[in-house]
Specification:
454 residues; single chain; 40% helix; binds pyridoxal-5'-phosphate
Length: 454
Amino acid sequence: MMDSYKIHLSEAEMPQEWYNIIPDLPSPMPPYLHPATGQPITPEDLAPIFPRALIEQEVSPERWIPIPDDIMRIYRLWRPSPLHRARNLEAALKTPARIYYKNESVSPAGSHKPNTAVAQAYYNQAAGIKRLATETGAGQWGCALALACNFFAMECTVYMVKVSYHQKPYRRSLMHIWGADVYPSPTDRTQAGRSILARDPETSGSLGMAISEAVEDAATHEDTNYALGSVLNHVMLHQTIVGLETKKQLALAGESPDVLIGCVGGGSNFAGFCFPFVPDRLKGQNIRFVAVEPTACPTLTKGAYTYDFGDTAGLTPLIMMYTLGHSFVPSGIHAGGLRYHGDAPLLCQLVHEKVIEARAYPQNPVFEAARLFAETEGIIPAPETAHAIKAAVDEARKCKETNQAKCIVFNFSGHGHFDLAAYDAFLEGQLKDIELDPDEMIKKALEELPKVTP
Ligand SMILES: Cc1ncc(COP(=O)(O)O)c(C=O)c1O
C-alpha cells in the first residue's frame, strides 16, 4: 500500500447511504423564504417544480439516507472512483507534504455532476414526470442531466449560458448524443428570457438568467420538473458519496487529512467532498477545509451574507447565502462552472461560522497549476478543478517552507477535455486576468438585494 498510486474500493465497498449534514450543523439552517410573502416556504410551494421525495430530502432531519438500488446500479458504472496519490506532483514540488486527489473525472460525463443528476432523474421518473428542464454553465451539468435522463428514458431541456454555448460546442454534442435539447440562454422561449433580451440584447448570459428560464419552463408545463445542479441541500446530499468514499480510501491508506480542498461554483463538489469530514472537525479533529473560487466571481470572499434570490428574475425562493447580488453578471472567464452569484446555503453557513475557509485566485495562476498537474500527473483538469489544484499546490509549497509533512487532499471534480480552447488561449498568452475590479459591479448589484425582514 505504501508505494501505490491509487487506492480503490470494490463495488461492494461503495457506501449505501448519503450523509445529511443538517442534523450536525452547529446552528439551525435559516429557512428558505417565499419570494412574494417573505415567509418561510412550505413543501407545497416547491411542489410545482420538484418531486415530493426531493423536497423531503431538502429539509430532512435524518443523518443517513439510503441510496435506492436503481441509483446504486447506475453509480456502479463508474463508482467507486479512485483516490490517487499525486506522487509525481509531490516530487516536482519537492514538498514533504503527501498530496491525494479524488478523481471524479472518471464518470461518463467527466465530472462529479452525475452523482446528483442520476438521483434527481430517478426520483422525478418515479413521480411520473416525463421531462426535466435545467440550466448549464460550462456544460458539465447539462451533460450529466442529459446522461441521467437518457438512463431513465426521460426528455431533457437544457438552457445553456450563451457564452458557454459558443465556447463549448462539443459539450453540446454530448448532450445531443444523450438525447437532450439545448438552447443558448437567454432565449425567446420564456418570459424571463424575453425580458432579459429586451433590456440587453447582447448579453453573454449568466447562470442566474438560465435558472430563471428553466424554472419558468418547469412551472408552466404539467409534465415537466426542474433540476438544479448545485446549491440546494438535496444536491449536496447526493454528492456526499464522494467524501464518504474518500474517507474509506484514506483510512485504507492509513491517512488522516490535515487539509481538504475543493473548488466552488455553487458548492456541490466541495460540499460532497468535505461534509462527511465536518463532524470530525466539530468533535475537535484538526482538519482545515479550503473553498476556492475565481477572483472574477468572488462570492464567498467578497459577497454579503444575506437573503437573495437564486436566479436573476427573482422566481426562486430567497436563500440565506453569500451573494454578489442576483443581478451580478460575472465576466466571461473560462471556468464557466464557477460563475454563479450565490452559493449553497449549507456551505455559506459553515463559512460564516468559520468552520470552512475561502480564498480566490485569478485565472492565469490557476492555469499554471493546471499545466503543472497535466505535466506531472497526466490528466488535463477542468478549469474549475484547476482552482482546487492551485490551492493544493500553494499548501504543499507552504509545507516545503515550514518543513511539515501534511496530508493534503483535494477533489478532482472533472477533466478538461472539452475546455481545450481555454488551454489554447492560456498557452498563447491570451488569457486575461480580469483587471476590471469586480468591486464596483458587486457594490451596484448588492444595492439591488431584496429587502427582507425574516
Ligand atoms: C468540473 C466542475 N467542477 C466544479 C464545478 C462547480 O460546481 P459545484 O460548485 O456545484 O461543484 C463545475 C460546474 O459546472 C464543474 O463542471
